[in-house]
């Protein structure tokens, strides 16, 4: 090789070495820039990088129109929030929701929030797993003075739940059947008079005159509307075997099993029995039923009308007005607790709770919701929308606070099955339940 060629080769090697060196430097610079972009929330072109939303699981057991409406509100929240995404974990009913919660709590992995009825709420409250919410509800943007039944979330001086919606048990009847026989539901003075109407309808139409839900809350309402209570005034004696309880429950039993003028549907998965009861009324197999204010979204009000509950034994009706509650959990990460509360604020704002009310029939949790355009427009279309709110303001009473963590309620549930399904005389079923419930209460009250 001559000197000239050797110099050219050396020059070429030098150039190639320089190129490789610069490629490495530029590559390192590019990697560093990507790392810096990630750390600063920037994409490669300097625009903000999308942040993954914090997932917030919510446990609830709602079906039918209720479930559809809840999903719609969750979607609306997710669309409006850049930081949080609510993920529904749907259970069969409230009881299954409690079971799922207990399993998740035992594993120290609770959801961000859940929706519970009052009895399930009390069990959770007694277990010391719920997050106190007093600091949250005291903030001006929540406006707690506008919220109905907020005090039902109190447990031992702390607010452990806030209303998601308010429920009261209503009476729904077929307008065509009642009009055919010139029956004015509102003029009926008692449940006994309703039973006489049911007997006449069974004789003339060959259908059940009324359907009684396989539901403990309804049976409690009947007993309290006969003048009974769950415990004595001093709170020391369980009184579910009193004359008033026995009268109301045995009347229902006789109308179902002996006179056969009423029916009860039981069993199935989740709320299957509930919706079968409604179907029997809508399909003309029954002239009416006792249901929930939350049935409004599943009913055709060109066929049915809403009435307030009736009393027994000449007593004033005393239906429970109950808050179905949002609960947050102590063991959830702080970020999830904050996100859960953001959803609670969104859901319970006047417009959203009004939307929930007009779609489902449940009572809105805010007084101000009644004045929204969406509520007023629906009220013109369906005047029966206001009946549940009228009932809780006229006759509604708070639920019994079970100091045993739900064990008294559990005995009432067992007795309900014995009377409604097994046709056991109410006196026998209730006396057995009273003894067991009293034993549980004594454990709590003993010094």
From TrEMBL:
Name-wise, this protein is ABC transporter substrate-binding protein
Instruction: Decide whether keyword Transport is in the record.
Output: yes
Q: Which family does it belong to?
A: Belongs to the bacterial solute-binding protein 1 family.
Compartments (UniProt record): Cell envelope
Query: In which organism is this protein found?
Result: Paenibacillus chungangensis
Q: Which keywords describe this protein according to UniProt? A: Signal, Transport
The record's section on PROSITE patterns has: PROKAR_LIPOPROTEIN
Tell me the first and last residues of the signal peptide: 1-27
Keyword Signal assigned to the entry: answer is yes
Under Gene3D superfamilies, the record lists:
Periplasmic binding protein-like II
Name the Pfam families for this protein.
Answer: SBP_bac_8
Q: What is the protein's major site of localization?
A: other
């Amino acid at each position: 090789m001559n000197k000239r060629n050797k110099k050219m080769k050396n020059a070429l090697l030098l150039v190639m070495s320089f190129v490789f060196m610069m490629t490495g430097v530029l590559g390192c610079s590019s990697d560093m820039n990507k790392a810096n972009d990630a750390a600063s929330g920037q994409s490669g072109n300097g625009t903000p990088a999308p942040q993954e939303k914090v997932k917030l699981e919510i446990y609830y057991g709602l079906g039918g129109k209720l479930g559809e409406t809840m999903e719609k509100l969750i979607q609306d929240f997710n669309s409006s929030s850049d930081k949080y995404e609510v993920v529904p974990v749907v259970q069969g009913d409230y009881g299954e929701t409690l079971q799922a919660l207990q399993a998740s709590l035992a594993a120290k992995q609770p959801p961000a929030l859940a929706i519970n009825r009052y009895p399930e709420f009390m069990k959770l409250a007694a277990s010391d797993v719920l997050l106190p919410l007093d600091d949250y509800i005291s903030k001006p943007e929540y406006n707690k003075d506008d919220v109905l039944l907020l005090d039902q979330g109190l447990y031992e001086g702390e607010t452990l739940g806030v209303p998601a919606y308010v429920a009261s048990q209503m009476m729904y009847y077929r307008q065509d059947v009642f009009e055919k026989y010139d029956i004015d539901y509102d003029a009926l003075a008692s449940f006994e008079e309703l039973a006489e109407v049911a007997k006449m309808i069974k004789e003339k139409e060959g259908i059940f005159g009324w359907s009684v839900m396989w539901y403990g809350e309804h049976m409690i309402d009947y007993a309290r509307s006969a003048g009974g209570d769950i415990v004595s005034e001093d709170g020391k004696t369980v009184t579910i075997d009193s004359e008033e309880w026995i009268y109301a429950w045995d009347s229902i039993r006789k109308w179902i099993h002996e006179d056969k003028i009423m029916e009860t549907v039981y069993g199935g998965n989740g709320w299957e029995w509930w919706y079968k009861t409604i179907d029997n009324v809508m399909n003309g197999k029954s002239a009416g039923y006792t249901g929930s204010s939350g049935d409004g979204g599943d009913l055709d009000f060109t066929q049915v009308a809403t009435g307030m509950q009736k009393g027994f034994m000449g007593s004033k009706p005393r239906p429970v007005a109950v808050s179905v509650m949002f609960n947050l959990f102590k063991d959830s990460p702080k970020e999830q607790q904050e996100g859960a509360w953001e959803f609670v604020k969104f859901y319970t704002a006047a417009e959203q709770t009004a939307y929930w009310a007009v779609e489902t029939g449940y009572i809105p949790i805010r007084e101000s919701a009644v004045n929204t355009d969406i509520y007023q427009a629906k009220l013109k279309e369906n005047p029966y929308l206001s009946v549940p709110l009228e009932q809780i303001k006229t006759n509604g009473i708070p639920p019994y606070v079970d100091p045993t963590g739900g064990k008294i309620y559990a005995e009432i549930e067992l007795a309900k099955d014995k009377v409604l399904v097994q046709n056991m005389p109410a006196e026998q079923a209730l006396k057995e339940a009273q003894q067991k419930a009293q034993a549980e209460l004594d454990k709590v009250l003993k010094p």
